[in-house]
Amino acid sequence: MRAAQAIRGLAPVDVKSVARDSMLRWLLVLPLLIALLMRWGVPPVTARLDERFAFALEPYYALIASFMAMLAPMLVGIVIGFLLLDQRDDGTLAALRVTPVSLNGFLVYRIATPLVVSVALTMVVVPITGLVEIRPLALFLVAVVASPLGPLFALFLASFANNKVQGFALMKAASILNWPPVIAYFLPSGWQWAAGIVPTYWPAKLFWVLEAGEAGEVGWLGWMPYLVVGIAYQALLVALLLRRFNRIVS
């Protein structure tokens, strides 16, 4: 009931806030633009590399496509994070104490929104790239594991940035989280687990496993650990950030 009140009361406000802010609109559209760029740009680059340097880029298409599975929820989370910063600065969070929408209901809404939007956006942008063929169910599992990146980035910005300027700086610094999965891709499988400390690794690794068809060859044990550990680890990080955010608001 509290979450439903939050949705009815805050969803229209969020839509208007994003519509008024050109940067937030751009961030939400950016995954689609990058996916289209990959669709139209990667094949010519692949042909050029093969012609000039005899380098085959096709074996790395899964790595390139998995970038979209990480990027979409991250950008959704950044949008929500900036909304949280605005609402904290203008006193909206403090005002919730005297409204029918409780702070807990608000936080449930704030966590659920990037989860749902991230799953939907990931299911759209990955096929647009046209780089790999992955079954819809497999892509849905990847999207589910990647979706906690949304609330993670939102709470990270809202918990550690005092204003939008600091939020921009943290956003740029957080982009480094995209690199450990890229490095892990070229490491032996035993060493790849070390990259698991970075939450972006889990959806990327699950994507590689499912796209390569390993799930069908080795059974559910080939991909289930990345699904379970990825969700559990990110849920723990969300809980820790939520605790810090609650302290700041209180």
Description:
The structure is a single chain. It contains 13 helices and no strands. The protein is globular. It has one domain (2-249). The model has no long low-confidence stretch (mean pLDDT 86). It is 79% helix and 0% strand. The protein is mainly alpha-helical and 250 residues long.
Sum up the structure in keywords.
250 residues, mainly alpha, 13 helices
Q: What would you say about this model in short?
A:
The protein has 250 residues and is mostly helical.
Secondary-structure topology with pairs:
Blueprint lengths: L1 H19 L1 H32 L7 H29 L2 H4 L7 H27 L6 H11 L2 H12 L3 H11 L4 H7 L3 H4 L8 H11 L2 H5 L5 H26 L1
Helix pairs in contact: 1-5, 2-3, 2-5, 3-5, 3-7, 3-11, 5-6, 5-7, 6-11, 6-13, 7-8, 7-13, 9-11, 11-13
**Biggest sheet details:** none
Low-confidence parts, pLDDT < 50 over ≥5 residues? none
What number is the mean pLDDT? 86
Radius of gyration: 19 Å
Please trace the helix and strand order, writing H or E for each element: HHHHHHHHHHHHH
Structural class of the secondary structure composition? mainly alpha
Helix run count: 13
| Total count of domains | 1
